[in-house]
Write a structure and sequence with these properties.
The chain contains eleven helices and 15 strands. It is an alpha/beta fold and 422 residues long. α2 packs antiparallel against α8, α4 crosses α5 and α9 runs parallel beside α11.
């Protein structure tokens, strides 16, 4: 892309954008609001609101009979839609529970496959909750496993890949990483890391929370073992919408969920007193699923499937490249530095800008400049770019408002003390 720093250039890019019609399918009640936090919570799709309205009618009319219509099958049906976005064949993804619960289930399943292997390899760039789940699981299993966290290079931007390779050995049971890291947006080479792990006899579990819906994922082609992810970011499923999990076909009959529930039972309505796991991916279901949020999330997947992951990735990279160029011209002189890889192939769909006053700048942007990014410690201002509805004009306006916030010293009136949610 040939770069120009004018507002008119952003408008030209928006006119050329083949995905621009999708923006009209989302609720945008404040046209002047620059929303750059779709990497935390996606906008509401009109299709989701319409599905919720129909669901209230179904609930009132059908009552429990709704489970025999399309409610009971929803986890598997929604899983198949997600699979089309993630390069997974049928029968390998199910929508259920939360990311943390699914990480626990799949990590426990992986660690019990070969008790001789006692090492878990992850990194310091991983989402902390993932690390907490691993720590709790190790404690529950009698502290027989060791967690190795490899470090980073370039100030928390890039993981130390040499250290990662050196850490994977004959004792490694599981490598678990965020495909796109939550602070910097660094994108791991899934195929290369998975191939390395398999060469040394280890399994890999990928957290796709910052990938699904923004970055093409090829789970089957990469020979992935396990994956988890949330649906309320780029999949626009709504606050707290159900997560998903992936287990490759050749492992499904070898592993078992550590949480046995009736939705994962082979014959749930036989009500037998002893658990028999259902065949295939269904065995990883537990209790009754949250049907309301599950069906609302299902409706939000349709625009992504229509757009296609290749087109979404192309626009995502164009948006981030444009944002980075504007940052280098307008914000770098004001003390900002890039906290995201400059190499496009190693970049997800959010850009991190680092500044010593990042937190107070973030407060000023939200409270008086009508820009919503988010902040991550210690100095990361994250800007999420959602290809279905983020425009180039919003990027230009957002960078301009950040520039004004700093040059006009608007941030100085805000305290350094953090709010609960940043």
């Amino acid at each position: 892309m040939e770069f120009e720093s004018s507002r008119s250039f952003a408008r030209r890019l928006d006119k050329q954008d083949s995905l621009s019609p999708f923006r009209t399918r989302f609720a945008i009640p404040e046209p002047d609001l620059v929303y750059l936090d779709g990497n935390s919570l996606g906008r509401q799709a009109f299709a989701s609101a319409e599905r919720l309205q129909r669901l209230t009618e179904e609930w009132g009319r059908d009552l429990v009979r709704g489970f025999n219509q399309d409610w009971w099958q929803a986890p598997g049906r929604v899983g198949e839609k997600i699979a089309r976005l993630l390069g997974a064949g049928p029968g390998q993804i199910v929508a259920c529970d939360t990311v943390s619960v699914n990480l626990f289930k799949l990590s426990a399943a992986a660690l019990t496959l070969d008790p001789r292997r006692t090492k878990i390899v992850t990194d310091t760039l991983n989402f902390p909750s993932d690390l907490y789940i691993l720590q709790g699981l190790v404690r529950m299993l009698g502290d027989r496993h060791t967690i190795v966290r490899i470090g980073s290079k370039n100030g928390e931007v890039t993981p130390d890949l040499d250290a990662l390779e050196a850490a994977i050995d004959k004792d490694t049971a599981l490598i678990t990483l965020s495909h796109v890291t939550f602070k910097s947006g660094y994108l791991y080479d899934m195929a290369a890391i998975t191939e390395l792990a398999h060469r040394r006899g280890a399994l890999v579990l990928w957290d796709l929370s910052h990938s699904a819906g923004a970055v093409p994922v090829a789970l089957d082609a990469c020979n992935a073992d396990f994956a988890i992810g949330c649906t309320y970011k780029y999949l626009n499923g709504g606050p707290g919408s159900p997560a998903f999990l992936y287990v490759c076909k050749n492992l499904q009959e070898q592993v078992a969920s550590p949480i046995w529930g009736w939705w994962g039972q082979k014959e749930p309505f036989a009500f037998g007193l002893d658990y028999v796991p259902a065949p295939g991916i269904t065995r990883f279901l537990t209790g009754t699923q949250p049907i309301v949020s599950l069906l609302a999330m299902e409706a939000a997947l349709d625009p992504l499937l229509e757009a296609g992951m290749d087109a979404l990735r192309t626009k995502s990279l164009q948006l981030s490249e444009y944002l980075i160029n504007l940052t280098e011209e307008f914000l770098a002189p004001l003390g900002f530095s890039l906290g995201t890889p400059r190499i496009r192939e190693r970049r997800g769909s959010h850009v991190s800008l680092r500044h010593p006053e990042g937190y107070r700048i973030n407060r000023a942007l939200i409270e008086e400049m009508k820009v919503i990014p988010d902040f991550r410690e210690p100095d990361n201002l994250r800007l999420g770019l959602t290809p279905l509805y983020t425009t180039f004009g919003e990027i230009w306006e957002g960078i301009d408002r950040i520039r004004r916030t700093v040059t006009e010293k608007r941030y100085e009136k805000y305290p350094t003390q953090r709010l609960t949610v940043t």
